[in-house]
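fyi for ur records
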Amino acid sequence: MEGRSLLALVVAHGLAAAVAPGLVRWLGRRAFLALALVPLAAVVWALTQTGTVLDGGVVEESSAWIPSLGFTLDLTLDSLRWLMVLIVAGVGVVVLAYCAWYFEDSSRGLVGFASSFSAFVGAMLGLVLADNLLLLFVFWELTTIASFLLIGFDPTNRASRRAAIQALLVTTLGGLAMLVGMLLLGQVAGTFSLAAIVADPPSGAATTVAVWLILVGALSKSAIVPFQFWLPGAMAAPTPVSAYLHAASMVKAGLLLVALLVPAFADTPGWRPVLLTLGVATMVSGGWRALRQIDVKLLLAYGTVSQLGFLLVVLAVGSRTAALAGTALVLAHALFKSTLFLVVGVVDRLTGTRDLHTLSGVGRRLPALAVAAALAGASMAGLPPLVGFLGKETMWTALLELTHDGNTAGVPVWAGWLLVAGVLLGSSLTAAYTVRFWWGAFATKPGVAPTAVRPLAVPFAAGPVLLAALGLVLGFLGAGLTDALQPYADRFEAGDHEEYLALWHGLELPLLLSAVTVVVGAALFVVRDPLCAFQHRVELPVSGGQVYRATLRGVDRLAVEVTGTVQRGSAASYLAIILLVVAAGPGTALVLALVDGPDLKVFAWDSLGQPAVGLVMIAAAVMTVRSRRRLRAFILAGVTGYGCALLFVLHGAPDIALTQILVETVALVVIVLVLRRLPDYFSDKPLHPIRYARMALAAVIGAVVSGVLVVAGSSRTAEAVSTRFAKAAYEFGYGRNVVNVTLVDIRAWDTFGEISVLVVAATGVASLVFLDTRSGGVRRLADADPATQEAHAASAPTARTWLPAPGTLSPDRRSIVFEVVTRLIFHSILVFSVYLLIAGHNLPGGGFAAGMVAGLALMVRYLAGGRYELAEALPIDAGVIIGTGLFVAAVSGLGPVAFGGEVLQTADVYVDLPLLGELHLVSSVGFDIGVYLVVTGLVLDLLRTFGARLDRQILTAQREADRSQQPAEVSP
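which gave:
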């Protein structure tokens, strides 16, 4: 079945997250009711697909995302995913509506919470529906980010921040391992389609490694031992977050992945022994810890850990009966655990406490909530007639099947009995902490004063009451649930008999086991005080949380030591490390290539001008390293740059030559500006042995780079891609300048990345050199000190003059000739930059070269009039210009999408204009304009950083020196 409904559901939640801030500012907390309509639409749509799912059908959608990489948005809806959509979206509706009464309009961070919550629901839906492994990973990490934001809802709360970081680190670590496994599995299977992989699973050692790496991600997400410690800490989040993320949806992601993989990979070496053991260990340890909690919310948190281990056991078995029981229990867990968390939220809001030793008589004041909690607790403990009982009865049948020889899962009989015993113990603990929760939250305790309870708003209790009632109703609909979940169960081999969900299977062993768990659980509750004392005595000295914190401290300490060792504040050391890596990596490859004896193809020169220029460049390089004067050295280094530009000209590349000349000129000017704060001469100390090592390293790098160029150029076996650029530039880019069309069209993505790097570099330069904002450097004449303004007013004519700032300079710094030249050429340079910008599509030029020329015009103004003249020339913050340029480039790239095209697709149009005649306009010129603005802003940023601000520093230093040299006044 094809369509776009699945993608529309996910996108709708993204849009809801985008508009959520505006809704919250407009409607306050009532905005949650509007946001709840989006997941409600998902629930309604999923219900309309019930017939398709019950018939075993599958809804599939596929949309191209990155066709060149074969990356598609593959979404699918089968019976298992249908169930998860109902859980994710259905509970999402209830929790969002619940938030409208849980929060106050004045609650801190409500805007961000609403947006993050809606985004999480959408990411979880995308995760559930994704069929492509890579797409699944994208949504997987989006849920991680959203949960981080939701757990850390209150940034002023240290516990929330620590819990958010802990959850982020643990789940992200597992996610990275899972990504490697997904890439490996997709490579082995030849496809990233999960449905195709499960239908025809690969085998071998690589597959085993891939599956276990994926399982690491699943176990960390679902808080299975040894990753269980992050989930109780996450209870520092607001209760709606706990009810949704860590009871109904996020922690189900790992279990969903196990359920999707088990039909194909249950026989993977170690699958059942490891997962079943970890599941039982998680179930027992979580239940054991829950029995000693005083905070009822934390009690539920450890109970969630226990239940997740229980669900893992059932889902990982890999039999038809276990699959039926597992999916039913997933549904039951979502209902009863979200109910219980929402109940705790109400109790906390109305009483101001969650301490079970303090709460007393709450059940009498809140009878509806007490009943809802009792129903949800009964379902969690496996009591009839709740839906939890349906799943547990079938679960016992599935586990008892493993105690028979020749069972479909291939589990040894002794292991089957051990598994039954482990789950029996865990279920007994479940019953015990269920009773402890209800007693702690609602019972009247002798000797404890009744807890004051504020009035309950009916809508505030509607959510938990609705979910609890749904758990009760579904308990009577075993046949319907069996039909709905059977398509997933049918993927497995049938056992001894066909199992079904029902309240009554007769007086059989599963019923007896259920009764035993209830009786033992009640007994554990009766002896709760001695049991808690015993738990304190036998508590393990080390917990998962302690191991995590110790590991984090060790990593932090290691980072400090490593940073202190390699980051020593020496630019020479940093450069040496980089060059050593180059010598060790590409250098080794070069040596191996030369050993193989490649057929080197070397042409000395194409014309006699090339060796002549080369000799000049060599001479300049030698003189550079021998020069003691800094200015002479940089000028000689510039000679090599200009020589390189001349080589480009001789080789027939005027466009690249123009760019090289402009870059070299700007670099020289900036270097000269920096030299004002550096000594005139390099050190004249005798050569230290380390300097000989630097010389040797420089020689090695020169040899490696030269050798790589020769070997790489001689090793080409296929036709160069660039041979087709000339034709493509004219036919698809509508330009004759191959270089510029390549930059703004053929490889525009690369160019966009490069200008983004320029933006980051400009920001880094400004922030590293001066620890303040760029805007502090935009100082015009009006911002000058009074003495400077008076001097300028006295020297300037009455009418406003162009180039006014030179009047602020001392006479020894002014050059009348240069000021006259500036007046003559400034506007011409700017006009020339605009010409290069427009003509660059067909002639030498383009946005980069034009931006450099505009920057040179600003340099001329600055050199003529100083820092005030630079601000008079362009009184705009450089960051604004750079950001605008990046924005213009992005908009020009996205523009074609609005007309049905692709991102960065080029279009042209012919326009007849009066006087000018017919003009051929190309859309990529807009991208070039963005590049022009970025480069111009970058040059302006460099001028203000190394020019205007250094001027201020130098002037301040001179004034302080003058004051220090003045004789002190002597009093008469």
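Confidence is low (pLDDT under 50) at residues 771-777. thats all i got for now
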